[in-house]
Specification:
This protein is α/β, with parallel strands linked by helices. It has 18 helices and 16 strands. Helix 6 (133-149) crosses helix 7 (165-178), helix 12 packs across helix 14 (317-323) and helix 15 (343-354) runs antiparallel to helix 16 (358-364). Bound molecules: N-(iminomethyl)-L-glutamic acid (NIG) and fe (iii) ion. Fe (iii) ion is lined by residues 89, 91, 259, 332, 334.
């Protein structure tokens, strides 16, 4: 799936793109009216290798290309182009199903009640532990093919369904195995502190100490992840329990991201205190948390897939943006709380529910999602950036979110190469 060196170095022009939204020159934080969106008309993208060499009027770039013998993909019809989508929070490496949890929730049981009675995360741990490293890698690969068809060119993938040193390593190694076989760049995150393992006798503190001694140094040594996540919540880990673990991880050089304020507050305050890269969920955040996040450098990541999967409230996206926060939007794809895994649909729905402008939604799944992952080479279409982009067969960008996910990308380009049509499974 990854490009061969020769193919990847040849210059290549594509266009004309009726409307190109390069998402450049926009602020990292705060509200964005749609009028702020730069829209380039009848544009060409000249790629060289994995990156963009030039963006400009197609007619001129085409004349230059014909003179120099540069390959041209001449598009017919109307097209809208955007940076490839970045899904900054997923649990895409898992085995099994939690359809039973979903039915129980729809019958009135809460997520936390189901977890306490042996369902929830522990159920996925049991099913994921039964799968081999090879099976987990193949499952992730299959899901990445769907993500590619959805326009996702970079995705974060968490461990967290192993909950022992050996099983967390199995998950992270499965993610590393899959990485060279999938079209996207995968950003792995160690989420061993997802929940207390039910088969462990000791205290949460003892489990976290075990991870510090036996897991994090190996993750670092094998280069399996550079990010550490934890679920800060009642029934998972409290801020005071998790703080020493996060500080230890930071000393080793890991970046921190947290599952924060999903049902109760405390997590986002901790994220700010430790200087986390992002605080994700935030459905329970109130005015104090929103104001503090807006003042901080922590990216606030909304996960509308969890809202739709659990049937609960949305992340206060409008209030976060108005207060001045950097808002990313991610799918949280996981077998429990967010089984849909369709970022574009979810982002469109969040926009309608929370009155988030199209500019803010697109920012949340492109350059602001790149900030959430600490990546500065994508999320914006400009010379020198990765040639990761999506095209939609339509004449106006308003159509994309209006169709609430039904209008799918007609082509997806990753590092200068069109992803094979067999990535489209729908
Ligand atoms: O982001 N909230 C904690 N973790 C996941 C859910 C994982 C699961 O239910 O399997 C989340 O929603
Ligand atoms: Fe999550």
């Amino acid at each position: 799936m990854k490009s061969s060196p020769t193919e990847a170095t040849l210059p290549h022009l594509i266009g004309p793109i009726t409307q190109l939204l390069p998402m450049s020159g926009l602020p990292a934080k705060g509200a964005l009216p749609d009028s702020a969106l730069p829209v380039l008309e009848n544009t060409g993208i000249l790629m060289e290798g994995e990156r963009i060499r030039e963006i400009g009027p197609f007619d001129k770039l085409e004349r230059d290309a014909r003179r120099s013998g540069t390959a041209v993909t001449h598009l017919s019809g109307e097209h809208v182009g955007l940076p490839g989508f970045i899904d900054a929070h997923t649990h895409s490496c898992f085995a099994g199903s939690r359809a039973r949890d979903y039915a129980l929730r729809n019958s009135g049981r809460t997520y936390l009640e189901i977890a306490e009675s042996g369902g929830g995360i522990w159920d996925s741990v049991t099913q994921t532990r039964k799968a081999s490293r090879e099976e987990l890698g193949s499952l992730l690969e299959m899901r990445c093919r769907q993500f590619a068809a959805d326009g996702i060119t970079t995705l974060e993938v968490k461990s967290g369904y192993g909950l022992s040193i050996a099983e967390e390593l199995k998950m992270l190694r499965a993610i590393a195995d899959a990485a060279p076989r999938v079209a996207q760049d995968l950003v792995p995150t160690c989420l061993a502190a997802h929940s207390m393992p039910r088969d462990m006798e000791g205290s949460p503190e003892a489990y976290l100490e075990e991870l510090q001694a036996g897991l994090l140094p190996v993750v670092l040594k094998e280069g399996l992840a550079r990010r550490v996540d934890a679920f800060v919540e009642k029934g998972a880990f409290s801020p005071s329990q998790i703080l020493p673990y996060l500080e230890f991880a930071q000393k080793l050089g890991f970046e921190i991201t947290l599952h924060a304020d999903q049902f109760t507050t405390g997590g986002s305050e901790l994220a700010i205190r430790v200087g986390a890269r992002s605080a994700d969920h935030l459905e329970a955040s109130g005015p104090a948390e929103i104001a503090a996040l807006a003042k901080s450098r922590v990216v606030a990541t909304a996960l509308p897939g969890a809202t739709l999967g659990l049937g609960c409230g949305y992340t206060p996206a409008r209030a976060l943006l108005d207060a001045g926060a950097c808002l990313a939007i991610a799918s949280d794809y996981n077998p429990g709380s967010a089984p849909m895994g369709d970022l574009l649909t979810q982002a469109a729905i969040l926009g309608a529910a929370e009155k988030v402008t199209h500019a803010e939604v697109f920012a949340g799944i492109t350059f602001r999602a790149a900030i959430a992952l600490g990546l500065d080479d994508r999320g914006i279409l400009a010379p020198g950036m990765l040639a990761d982009f999506v095209l939609f067969d339509t004449d106006h960008y308003n159509e994309i979110l209006y169709h609430q996910g039904r209008l799918r990308p007609s082509s997806v380009w990753k590092k200068g190469r069109r992803l094979p049509d067999n990535t489209a499974t729908q």
